[in-house]
């Protein structure tokens, strides 16, 4: 008589979630499930970053906030130069190995990419310490903490890529929750103990806690030289792509440090902390979509790939344009609620927040980026070129306007770069894959016209009831012009609710 296998207890289940082996199955979770888990993961990580700005800003003021966020921006910028792209390479090539059913190659890719990331983080951590002292004039404690933050953040981004490539979204979410809780707990201890030189340490501890359990230590057989070269070339182009797409936000803060006061940089940091969490939601959708695109492209399933890409793009526009539109309409009340304890120091954040909401809204319609990253080899180069043009024009705007406009020039330059680097890849994929996006692009333009109209009226009439009426009107008009995409999804959701 065969004895049924014992059901694993709670400790066993948690061990399987937190310390899973590599996933060799040639299939993915449903995109909705992957997206939901990634949203949770990104939300809790964004909460820890937002908690840094909110707690330090309210308790210690704009000047110390400016110093801390300048150090964080330097670390984030340096990580973009190689380690984060190594994580993207791990995600793509692990997913492609799964698509081919090659478990040995999957392990070897993880190990090879980890060595590439480790070399990059070692060099860049030393660079961070030197730049913090010589270029930014930060205290030595902050400089050393910045070097440690580069190592921990690099490891975090790389391991996130490994887990994503292995389709381990539950594990990713669990560790994000754990590391964020530890980060905020340690930050509160540092603040209560008035240990100002250690303000950056909680972030580093949280990122390392996330990364260490899944850092690849064993691989399969030796990778062919052709595949090694392909991984390195992808990492190189992905680095250019990432630095030109995401690097300008950090660079804009560092340039603002040059053109304006430390207090103004603190105001800009506060605006960035509010504007970027919502954009993380769209980024989480890309994280969920990227391995699926790479696997389907490798398997030759182009029809389903295009169908999924179109659906994700429509959801992004449907959801995120009104999210940022409402954020723009409510920018002033948001600043007053979040920084009421020192509102006299943070009133200058309101116009900066409005411009940043416009900027990050454009980066939310970026499903085309997954198509270019996960498809043909030329895709990542085209994406890098689009982002490079956007970044050059953005930096040019900051340098031109900076002497007269201070940190506002940083916000405007970032907005210019965002719109260029978001629109160009969308047009490339629209034309190349013959996507039916003409009406969608028209709707995006109409949406921005509505937002500008509400903003113009709201600035002339600042009463709260006017803000509420503008919000309701904007959302109602947007729902009406988007009904073709909204109605099927409403029916889908209500149908599932009835079944449950």
Verbal overview:
- This protein is an all-alpha fold.
- The protein is built from 21 helices and no strands.
- The protein has helices spanning 10-18, 31-60, 62-79, 83-100, 103-134, 140-165, 169-192, 201-211, 225-245, 247-259, 262-298, 302-329, 331-338, 343-346, 349-362, 367-374, 377-405, 407-432, 438-460, 464-481, 483-499.
- α4 (83-100) packs antiparallel against α5, α12 (302-329) packs parallel to α19 (438-460) and α12 (302-329) packs antiparallel against α20.
- The longest helix is centred in the middle third of the chain and has 37 residues, at 262-298.
- The protein is globular, with a radius of gyration of 23 Å.
- 52% of the residues are buried.
- Residues 1-8 have low confidence and may be disordered.
Which key features would you list for this structure?
mainly alpha; 21 helices; 0% strand; disordered N terminus
Number of strand segments:
0
Overall average pLDDT = 86
Q: What string, H for helix and E for strand, traces the elements in order?
A: HHHHHHHHHHHHHHHHHHHHH
What is the C-alpha radius of gyration, as a whole number of Å? 23 Å
What structural category arises from helix and sheet content? mainly alpha
* Estimated share of beta-strand residues: under 5%
The backbone outline, from C-alpha atoms, is: globular
């Amino acid at each position: 008589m065969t004895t049924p296998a014992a059901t694993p207890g709670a400790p066993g289940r948690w061990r399987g979630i937190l310390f899973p082996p590599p996933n060799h199955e040639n299939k993915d979770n449903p995109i909705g499930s992957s997206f939901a888990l990634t949203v949770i993961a990104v939300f809790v990580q964004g909460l820890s970053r937002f908690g840094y700005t909110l707690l330090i800003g309210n308790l210690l003021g704009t000047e110390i906030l400016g110093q801390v966020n300048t150090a964080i921006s330097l670390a984030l910028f340096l990580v973009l130069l190689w380690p984060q792209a190594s994580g993207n390479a791990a995600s793509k090539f692990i997913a492609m190995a799964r698509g081919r059913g090659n478990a040995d190659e999957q392990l070897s890719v993880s190990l090879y990419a980890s060595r590439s990331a480790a070399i990059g983080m070692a060099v860049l951590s030393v660079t961070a310490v030197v730049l913090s002292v010589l270029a930014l004039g930060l205290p030595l404690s902050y400089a050393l903490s910045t070097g440690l933050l580069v190592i921990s953040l690099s490891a975090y981004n790389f391991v996130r890529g490994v887990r994503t490539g292995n389709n381990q979204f539950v594990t990713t979410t669990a560790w994000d929750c754990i590391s964020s809780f530890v980060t905020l707990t340690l930050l509160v201890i540092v603040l209560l103990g008035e240990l100002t030189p250690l303000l950056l340490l909680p972030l580093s501890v949280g990122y390392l806690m996330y990364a260490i359990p899944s850092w690849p230590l064993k691989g399969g057989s030796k990778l062919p030289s052709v595949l090694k070269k392909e991984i390195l070339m992808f990492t190189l182009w992905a680095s250019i792509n990432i630095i030109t797409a995401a690097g300008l936000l950090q660079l804009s803060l560092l340039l603002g440090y040059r053109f304006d006061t430390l207090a103004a940089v603190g105001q800009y940091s506060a605006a960035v902390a509010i504007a970027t969490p919502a954009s993380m939601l769209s980024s989480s959708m890309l994280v969920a979509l990227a391995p699926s695109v790479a696997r389907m492209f490798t398997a030759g399933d182009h029809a389903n790939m295009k169908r999924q890409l179109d659906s994700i793009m429509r959801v992004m526009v449907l959801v995120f344009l009104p999210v940022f539109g409402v954020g723009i309409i409510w920018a002033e009340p948001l600043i007053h609620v979040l920084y009421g304890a020192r509102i006299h120091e943070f009133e200058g954040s309101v116009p900066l927040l409005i411009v940043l909401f416009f900027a990050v809204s454009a980066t939310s319609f970026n499903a085309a980026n997954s198509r270019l990253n996960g498809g043909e080899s030329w895709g990542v180069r085209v994406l890098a070129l689009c982002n490079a043009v956007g970044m050059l024009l953005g930096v040019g705007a900051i340098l031109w306007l900076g002497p007269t406009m201070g940190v506002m020039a940083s916000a405007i330059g970032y907005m210019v770069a965002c719109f260029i680097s978001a629109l160009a890849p969308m047009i490339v994929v629209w034309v190349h894959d013959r996507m039916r996006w003409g009406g969608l692009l028209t709707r995006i333009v109409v949406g921005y016209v509505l937002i500008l109209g509400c903003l113009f009226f709201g600035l002339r009439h600042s009463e709260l009831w006017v803000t509420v009426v503008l919000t309701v009107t904007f959302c109602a008009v947007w729902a009406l012009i988007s009904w073709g995409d909204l109605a099927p999804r409403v029916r889908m959701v209500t149908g599932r609710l009835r079944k449950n």
